[in-house]
């Protein structure tokens, strides 16, 4: 549990706003021009609200422009080197409580893992593997570029899980030939381990 709160500047809002390890956001003391004189503005804790999906969001203002940001995304940028809209990763709430934006409850993971890590009613202990009643076997499948590829149907759940893990590492080599991709993944997975002398 994270108890000590420390603050860092929010990227692109340096001197205006900071975010803490507990997911709080505050504005900083500053002055602004009201058209005739400089007026002091006292910093304060910003109150977040919920978006339609239940995530905490906050409005930040700079140079007369107001933008809405997800607190979890701001946390990712500040503490996890997350590059919003450029990163192939997403910010995940470890305990699945969308409003718990403490640094200790966030992690940067792949979208694929994020959508499968807490599936309910899954039949296998492995991502990408499910029990097929029709085949009476463990079936491993992966989706690449909108193509569903069945990797294997087997009685061995561990083998099905391992082939899926291999397929994840080979996604970039997929050329559109499902059969070739399937065989490549199976070959890699089933290679005998070479003994080193």
Order of strands, main sheet, comes to: 1-2-3
Helix content: 10-25%
- How many extended strands? 13
Q: What is the straight-line distance between the termini?
A: 47 Å
Q: Helical region count?
A: 4
Order of helices and strands: EEEEEEEEHEEHEEEHH
| CATH topology category name of the largest domain | Homing Intron 3 (I-Ppo) Encoded Endonuclease, Chain A
Description:
The protein has 197 residues and is an alpha+beta fold. The protein has two domains: 7-110, Homing Intron 3 (I-Ppo) Encoded Endonuclease, Chain A (Alpha-Beta Complex); 119-190, Single alpha-helices involved in coiled-coils or other helix-helix interfaces. The chain contains four helices and 13 strands. Strand 6 (49-50) and strand 7 form a beta hairpin.
What's the arrangement of secondary structure elements?
Blueprint: E1 7-9, E2 17-20, E3 25-27, E4 30-33, E5 38-41, E6 49-50, E7 56-62, E8 65-70, H1 71-79, E9 89-93, E10 106-110, H2 111-116, E11 129-132, E12 137-144, E13 147-154, H3 157-169, H4 178-190
Antiparallel strand pairs: 1-2, 2-3, 4-5, 6-7, 7-8, 9-10, 11-12, 12-13
Helix pairs in contact: 3-4
Name its key features.
single chain; 197 residues; alpha+beta; Homing Intron 3 (I-Ppo) Encoded Endonuclease, Chain A; Single alpha-helices involved in coiled-coils or other helix-helix interfaces; 2 domains; three-stranded antiparallel β-sheet; 13 strands; 32% strand; elongated
Would you summarize the structure shown here?
It contains four helices and 13 strands. The chain has helices spanning about 70-80, 110-115, 155-170, 180-190; strands at about 5-10, 15-20, 25, 30-35, 40, 50, 55-60, 65-70, 90-95, 105-110, 130, 135-145, 145-155.
